[in-house]
Amino acid sequence: MKPKRLESELQDVGTFSHPKQNLEQYATTPALATKVLHLAAVEFGDIEDKSVIDLGVGTGVLAIGAKLMGAGHVLGLDVDVDALSECKENLEMYEPELEVELVLMDVIELIRRYDDYDEEESDESDDDDDDNNNGDGKRKDYVWPKADTVVTNPPFGTRRKGADVAFLAAAMKMADTAVYSFHKTSTREYIQKVATKKLGAKSAKVVAEMKYGLKNQYGHHRKDEVEVFVDVWRIEPTCKMKRDGNNDEDEIFEQNLRDLAANIEELQLSARERKDKHRSSKNSNNTSNTSNRR
Ligand code: SAH
């Protein structure tokens, strides 16, 4: 698909209707998504017929773009059930509906629990209560979701320090071939060092530079729009985690997905139930307040 066509196909993808500041929810614009996906697909052959994970899928523009560019299986992960539900609506807008598997997952929590890389600032004692760890509280047997390519527009770590690197670490666990990750240009040297030295990347290169106009959707920015310079990295992880497609890991992986509440419909339902309960308890409180006043 030509870039112009892709961009116009992405034009109607809805963005966060109530963006959550603590999760740094900023949707990638159709223009930027097109630029990155086209590069990944055409220059590097990382999209067509490849399995793709969109880490922090949000409302789905990158996952949708990947699918439209001919990706095979696409998996979108996010910690926010509302974002996943909006993403689902976006997928349904296409005719035929686009197939992207959506899974609720706290990527940062997972990397904190199951990875063996040291968090620089970790001062928390891990209260993991299972036995399957190396004495440092971190399990070594976790099987990460895997795909050929991982794309991620991660939180930049402005709200939650280290979120950008936690995402990168998780992305590198999940990718067999390449990670495309967005990072502030001001952190370029740091990211280079982290990717290659700490996370053991085979290569890490900035493949595109972009200017982000972040709209003041939260009100904590003084200006209406702040410009942020962002690098798009292409990172080749080390190959040691590559799965051969026919071993026990597949089963554990499937089990892990199931354990992580893979059924988005159920989650939406329970979120709705919670809201309804909340509403009805509020109403009954109101009624009792009223009767008190009387
Ligand atoms: N990929 C989308 C959204 C990017 S914003 C796009 O490009 O438009 C970053 C996303 O990361 C948000 O959807 C946010 O909910 C998600 N996120 C933040 N913290 C997370 C965590 N701990 N685990 C999983 N997703 C997280």
Describe what you observe in this structure:
Helix 4 crosses helix 9 (264-293) and helix 5 packs across helix 6 (163-174). This protein is 39% helix and 18% strand. Helix 6 (163-174) links the parallel strand 4 (147-152) and strand 5 (175-184). The protein starts with a helix and ends with a helix. Mean pLDDT is 81; it is low at 121-134, 240-244, 259-265 and 287-294. It is globular and about 60 Å long. It has 9 helices and 7 strands, in the order ααβαβαβαβαβαββαα. The chain has 294 residues and is of the alpha/beta class. Strands 3-2-1-4-5-7-6 form a 7-stranded mixed beta sheet, sandwiched between helices. The structure holds S-adenosyl-L-homocysteine.
Count of runs of 4 or more consecutive helical residues: 9
Distance between the termini: 67 Å
- Number of distinct beta strands: 7
Rg of Cα set: 20 Å
Instruction: Name the ligand types.
Output: S-adenosyl-L-homocysteine
Strand-residue proportion = 15-25%
Strand order, largest beta sheet: 3-2-1-4-5-7-6
Largest sheet: 7 strands, mixed
Averaging pLDDT over every residue, what do you get? 81
Output the structural class.
alpha/beta
Series of secondary-structure elements, N-terminal to C-terminal: HHEHEHEHEHEHEEHH
The 3D shape can be described as globular
- Low-pLDDT ranges: 121-134, 240-244, 259-265, 287-294
Give helix % range. Answer: 25-40%
Helix and strand arrangement:
Blueprint: H1 3-10, H2 30-43, E1 52-55, H3 61-68, E2 74-78, H4 81-92, E3 101-104, H5 107-114, E4 147-152, H6 163-174, E5 175-184, H7 188-198, E6 203-215, E7 225-236, H8 248-259, H9 264-293
Parallel strand pairs: 1-2, 1-4, 2-3, 4-5
Antiparallel strand pairs: 5-7, 6-7
The structure holds S-adenosyl-L-homocysteine.
The site of S-adenosyl-L-homocysteine has 22 residues, from helix 3 and helix 5.
